[in-house]
Amino acid sequence: MDAKKHSKPQVRRKKTKINRDISRVITRLYVPENSRTPKIINRILSLNKNEAKKLMERIHFEFFDRHRDITRVLKNHYDAVAEYIPRGEELNETKKMLIGAYFTMEYSVESAGLFNPSIVPHPDQTNVPGGSLRFIMSLRSIGEGHISSISFRSGIIDNTNSFIFDPVSEFVETPNIQLNPFYDRHLFQLKLNEMNACNETTSRVLDQLSDEFSYNNLKERITELKANPDFPTDSKTIRIIYWLAKSNYEIKFHTEYGISERVIFPTSTIEKSGIEDARFVQFFDDNGESTYYATYTAYNGFSILPQIIKTKDFITFNIITLNGQAVQNKGMALFPRMINGKYVMLSRQDGENNRIMFSDHLHFWQESKIIQKPIKPWEFIQIGNCGSPLETSEGWLVLTHGVGPMRQYCIGAILLDLENPEKIIGRLKEPLITPREGEREGYVPNVVYSCGSLIHNNTLVIPYAMSDIMSGLATVEVSELISCMHPIAN
Hints:
The protein is α+β, with helices and mostly antiparallel strands.
């Protein structure tokens, strides 16, 4: 970092924009409230064979080319309401599919916006030209009711830092979902302890389980315990145990479908109102093997819960609960490797300051420390990170966001010491990216924001959101950016 140079770095905005596409729809189970389900089923059953056939033919004509496997969807949704079928009723396949269709709805995952991107190297770099990099970009997609999910795009950054995006499929797929095939009993108990749910009921349930147990094992033990007249179970504790179990699950996409077809849509009750601002990072173990993690905020309409996603291939994803006193707010960003034997993460527990925290265990975070406070007018309201730190020879490069007058969001940058990331050694005095004309209008005006960047050919590649409606791309030379930072004396 050159103390004599403090001019503003030159940011190059790309012409490419990542826009929402309202035609990209998933299917969702639709079950009306107020016990209307049996009435709807009885109306369908009242149709004669010819009426049912013609109606199903029309549904086939209008919807079957909008989804890769609508037959499977309708079958699954029929199974979801099959308990309401009158006992003894014999149904042919047409009636079953018709019932499934009445309890299915389409949902346009990107209808309101496609923004807050993060970018990481693709796990498969085979056949990529020299000097180029295949990437995966995650984005926060929002549809009806402000429900957030995670969408993906992919492509190549060539040796001139031009972006070549892969074609976006017209189809969108939601994954197969299952609760974690096995839970670690010790880890499960630690998490329950963090949730103040360790008591006699907890002990009796866990004592009957092996070191590794399945969701069905857990359910069986709880059922047995509740049936025991000699022991009154604590119903609140049972609800918390189930809540924790259902918050940890695995999803898997079809391998033959492209990554742009994959959407991680809210699944558990704790995220029914949205999966917000996933920050993906390629994390390297000491042995050189890499795993992709993403921290995100689960929202149920009333409260938030920090979660972490784990994947090796962007096909199978494990969703895991984060625990501890230091993960009670938004904006967690994991460092791409351990430092001095500790996991390290940036955070913003108080909604105002940039913080850092260290842990021996990836799932548990107990304490945090403020490393940066708002001191510039463009960040007086609050600051936070814009994704995971990037390692350079000069230090950990961290993009930040600052909120200033008129709640305008800007992107800034700081540099952390490589061995002691609690220490800021440089920062930009002025924003790196400020909303300009063409970026200010949208769902939430006057906002530029990112959830993660990467370095390619010594260039910082920044995907960034524009007013919570679409996303763009910018680049800046890493050496130039660092040379423009103001040194911080500690």
